[in-house]
Each structure stands twice: as C-alpha cells, then as structure tokens.
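Troubleshooting log. The previous structure file for this entry was overwritten by mistake, so regenerating from the original sequence record. Sequence copied from the archived sheet and checked twice against the printout by T.R.
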Amino acid sequence: MWDTSWERSRTSEPRFRPRIGREFELDAVHVIDARTRGFLSRAIAIGAGGAVAITGGYGLATGSYVAVEVVWAVAGPMLGAMVTHYFGSTGKDTR
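Regenerated output below.
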C-alpha cells in the first residue's frame, strides 16, 4: 500500500493555525513611543553637548580645536535633525 500522507496537505483545511493573542492597547503603545523618543532626544542633546564641552576644554588647554571640529561634524547633524523634528513646520501648506 502506498503512503498517501501527501494528499492530506492538499486539503483545504490548514495544518497549523496561528493563535491570535491579545492586542496591544493603543494608549500603551503611544506612551512607550513617547518615552523612547524623549529618552533618545535627551541622550543626543546631553551627549553632544557634553562632547562639545569636553573637546572645547581640551582645545582651550592645547590651543588646537581640531577635536571640536570633528565632534561638531558628527553631533551637529544629529542636533539639527532633532531640532527640525521638534520645532519644524507641521502643516502641509506652510508658506
């Protein structure tokens, strides 16, 4: 007798069905999203400000401000993106 187990897979009845769990509450998702954005924006602002301050102090001590230029080249675009996100225009027809 031949093995006909392959015929079972051709039936319309699926073998595995996903179990649908409880959905996330929308308020909880928004709170987590806001906390994450707040943490990241604070971390970027404090980290960039601290790095510029430290390299500025190093520049004052040594007389060479190359380190400040390098740190600002990295931190400046991040701060610019953050400021543009929070203080940029929100409407579509701003003129």
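The two ends are 79 Å apart (CA to CA). Archived copy saved in two places this time.
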